[in-house]
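Hi P.,

Sorry for the delay on this. The queue was packed all week, but I finally got your sequence through. Input first:
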Amino acid sequence: MKAFILAAGLGTRLKPWTDHHPKALAVVNGKSLLQRNIEYLQQAGIRDVVVNVHHFAQQIINAIHENQGWGSDVQISDETDAVLETGGGLVKAQPFFAGETDFVVMNADILTDLDLNKMIQLHQQSGALATLATTQRESSRYFLFDVAERLSGWTNTKTGEEKIMREPSPLHPAAFSGVHVINAQLFQHIHRTGKFSMVDVYLDICAEQIIKGFDHTGGLLLDVGKPESLEKAASIFQ
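Then the structure:
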């Protein structure tokens, strides 16, 4: 199985580090976020990794080469011409996943102890087109799932915006953790082009296709998007 690490973002919340470096190379206890997530994937037996790059792309490429992929076979999906967000980035990287049945996608700026093998197993047993890791935590944006953990909508509690794509009840909110397990058939259902989010893709198709949630509440999950979260990460992840 392969994995796709999303590392092309500008990392504006992590200034001043990202004024001169990509967010994925921010360091926690001597290891970059990128190295930590490549090693995290190795724990699940995944050593074929694609990394997309845009902001200070050459720094990421150099780090991968200098460290021989930290023991993994790492390929680059180059977005230096234009950052494409999660959905556009995945579509651009599609050729890397030719011949794959399922693959993992994760954000470079999250650190977690999520049991990825268990998530993959449940994804494959369910027949879902995609499975999204979630937790019950405070956020402003939530996916909405039915009692069978099937995606049915999305809401933004700050703006009051809500999108209900399926009408089962009741629905419950869950915050997305930035880890997906995706069946490659998903590519056939993506009709957007250019720059777009995977959130929009999932909402486009969840009425007709099965998108499931995987709740890992109680485990470690840290969004390392701000300078203070780097300090917190250093106290948790050795």
